[in-house]
Fold:
Amino acid sequence: MIIRETTCKTALIRSALPNLDYALNPYKGCEHACIYCYAPSVLKYGGEEKWGDFVEVRKNMPKILSKELKSKRKEPGIVGIGTVTDPYQPVEKRYEVTMNCLRVLLDRDFPVSIQTKSSLVLRDINILKRFKRCEVGFTITSIDEHIREKYEPKSSSFDEKVSAIRKLSKNGIKTWIFLGPIMPYITDRQGELEKLISKIPPDISYIIIDKLRLKKGLWKNIELFLSAYNPELIPIYKDLLYSKNDYFLEVKSEMVNLCRAYNINCKVLF
Ligand code: SF4
Structure:
């Protein structure tokens, strides 16, 4: 893993994402190395290093953020932390950039919305519970650990994520889950989605569900993953992802029924 310390000129940027006013990303690059990562396409990343092999640490971000908030150039608003790359990827343990940014935001009473795949967020629970408005979302793709390890190698396990959700909720912090992307014939295998839904803690506010989307340049990664996982799925995926069909409509209806049966609020994005 290549880790580079860098600096930034701006901390908070306006966000176009729903329900967020600002985005704050302490890191560029992500050690979690998920095979389906959309970040390179969002950032229009065209560098030579493979995504997942490097992280740039925006070391001065807490200072810049503090200056921005003191100058009152930024009106209070909801700050999405880790909108592009994970704010609690392993390197955060050493650099604590996310933690120090949280301290600054807490001082100025800016609400925060965090999205992560790591239980490292629990380290900051004493800061998080002091916010008037704070929520933590966990991305979960599969309950099957063999798949998760191939799919998003450095993220926390399913059990660690669930236990982190319980702990955060117990401490009064709102939690939610992003379930996805759903990988046809892998994460939605017979009975898998029900197993997963049945393990979701009841204190969760809602779950958002999405399917695999072929962002620019992503097919290469998916094909590589499938050739190791089950090459027979390659033509099936091509057919599913590049043609009109009802596959995901059926998955959607299954998810809606499951969430209803387990009394979970859900929003399906497809
Ligand atoms: S955690 Fe998010 S940003 Fe990091 S590699 Fe996975 S999908 Fe990409």
Notes: The chain has one domain: 2-268. The pocket of iron/sulfur cluster is lined by residues 30, 32-34, 37, 39, 85-86, 117, 152 (CB under 6 Å).
